[in-house]
Design a protein that fits this description.
heterodimer; A: 408 residues; mainly alpha; 21 helices; 72% helix; 0% strand; B: 107 residues; alpha+beta; Alpha-Beta Plaits; 4-stranded antiparallel beta sheet; 2 helices; 36% strand; globular
């Protein structure tokens, strides 16, 4: 096996086995910190040994066994200090967990990392570290914070889980919908940070984050195949990701949906997203992700922007507004209304949102666009100025600036 | 696992004052289900005294150790198997007391 093949095997094992190894160790030792450290050590040993010894026939089992041994070493070391040798012995004599239960373990791990007693940013970081296997420097870079700060955030989270005894289990059937929706919120946040990366130096689209969010959502879908909202979020991500390359021009400028080269969309992702949406079409009382996915399915079904079924889009937004009367959804509904009933009607709806959205760049960008279409250049320019001032995404700023400068 | 459960009131926006019967009923349930360790309401923060005897002479100061709009109005100690159980009880306690609740584990 070549060096490249071994490296590829290690990357693949990391992608496929990291969460399993951490999950099974957390279950066995009841400690996230021990599980994380031992898993990291096992992968480091693989990097060292596999090139010489060859890739083991069952990399997952090899990594779990190695990590288990490392965890026991650490517990023995610490217990020797604490003079509690006996406890380590009991742990060591425990028979290993049967392999069949492990898929469930990953689900436990996800619910613990996304526990509502942790701050949202902490849930995101912990999920990327424990379930996604990203390193602390990678997560710090993704969210533009110092490595030490990110490290501390994760360390504090692990300490809280231990001290407050946040349980390591799948929530009861009664709590499950609320807790799943908490997990999906974490994944959607990771995806959105990748899709609309903020910061003057950030790439406009962080493919590493969108890809990781999709991978984790796929994992949750295999673990909770009956959950409509999980399917909905996955479809939403796929249909959004499909347009990724068409969304930013060669010069780094945002290309809005109506102006994108639809031939550049990823046909395989669109097809997979549409398939998921079709499976959920008959669902009673679909949740917000299913409706958002359906809206994206309408957009991606049109070969040309002029073929878009805007009445269908507005009807779906009406459904969404009933579920979630947030001003951001009302703003997006108004954008669709502009296509159906014209910018005059839509602008009136947008202006009603001023109180709630005056600090949100998309509110001003939407107004600017509608005012431009109505030929009110001066007001449009002022709205573009405000939008540019508030926008954090470099591609978006570039697009808004050009639009403003093209005003007559 | 024991948790300190603090009832937090707000001086500028206090919770309702008619909660005692509901709190008593909730306490009875906590006792019956084995969660109850201790409970007590506290007098106003004006009744507090802070004592500092780290120096050469003991110093008594009138009032609470920190002046704030929000203050501790009462405490429970609960015995619960894990945080999920404590959070579920705390959610009920917040309704019963008509006040915010903080749950903090003992070490």
């Amino acid at each position: 096996m070549s060096v490249v093949d071994v490296r590829e095997a290690i990357t693949q094992a990391h992608r496929e086995e990291w969460a399993r190894v951490v999950a099974s160790l957390t279950r066995r030792f009841g400690d996230l910190d021990i599980a994380e450290e031992a898993a990291a050590e096992a992968f480091a040993i693989a990097v060292e040994r596999w090139p010489a010894d060859g890739v083991p026939p069952n990399p997952g089992a090899w990594l779990t066994t190695t990590a288990n041994r490392k965890a026991i070493d650490r517990i023995r070391r610490e217990n020797k200090r604490d003079d509690k040798q006996e406890e380590a012995q009991t742990l060591y004599d425990d028979p290993p967990e049967p392999l069949g239960a492990i898929d469930d373990e990953r689900l436990r791990l996800i619910f613990t990392c996304c526990h509502p007693a942790l701050a949202m940013q902490t849930r995101v970081a912990l999920t990327l570290r424990m379930v996604g296997g990203l390193t602390v420097p990678e997560i710090a870079r993704a969210f533009l914070v110092q490595e030490t700060a990110m490290g501390q955030r994760i360390t504090r989270a692990k300490a809280k889980i231990k001290a407050a005894r946040i349980p390591y289990r799948v929530p009861s059937a009664e709590d499950l919908p609320a807790r799943v929706s908490g997990v999906l919120a974490v994944l959607f946040l990771i995806f959105n940070e990748g899709y609309l990366a903020t910061g003057p130096d950030a790439d406009p689209v962080r493919h590493d984050l969108t890809a990781e969010a999709i991978r984790l959502t796929r994992l949750i879908r295999t673990l909770l195949p009956e959950d409509g909202e999980v399917a909905g979020l996955l479809a939403l991500m796929l249909l959004t990701e499909a347009r990724r390359t068409a969304r930013v021009s060669a010069s780094g400028e945002l290309v809005p949906l109506g102006e994108q080269d639809r031939g550049a969309w990823d046909a395989a992702l669109v097809a997979e997203g549409h398939q998921l949406v079709r499976e959920r079409l008959a669902a009673v009382g679909p949740g917000r992700y299913q409706i958002l996915a359906a809206i994206n399915a309408v957009h991606t079904s049109a070969r040309d922007v002029r073929d878009t079924d805007w009445s269908q889009v507005v009807a779906l937004y009406d459904q969404l507004v009933r579920l979630d009367p947030s001003p951001i959804i009302a703003l997006n509904r108004a954008i669709a209304v502009a296509e159906l009933d014209g910018p005059e009607v839509a602008l009136a709806a947008v202006d009603r949102l001023e109180d709630k959205l005056a600090g949100y760049h998309a509110y001003h960008a939407t107004r600017a666009d509608m005012l431009r279409r109505l030929g009110r250049s001066q007001k449009s320019r002022a709205a573009y100025d405000k939008a540019i001032e508030l926008a954090g995404n470099t591609a978006e700023t570039a697009y808004l600036t050009r639009r403003r400068d093209q005003l007559g | 696992m024991q948790y300190l459960v603090s009832v937090i009131d707000d001086k500028s926006n206090p919770g309702s004052t008619d909660r005692q019967p509901a709190i008593s009923a909730f306490n009875k349930r906590l006792i019956a289900e084995g969660y109850w360790v201790f409970a007590g309401g506290l007098a106003d923060t004006d009744a507090a005294t802070v004592i500092d005897n780290r120096g050469e002479q003991v110093v008594f100061s009138d009032g609470p150790f920190v002046e704030s709009k929000e203050y501790l109005a009462g405490v429970w100690v609960w015995e619960a198997p894990d945080l999920d159980v404590a959070l579920e009880l705390a959610a009920e306690a917040s309704k019963v007391c008509d006040r915010k609740i903080e749950v903090r584990p003992f070490v």
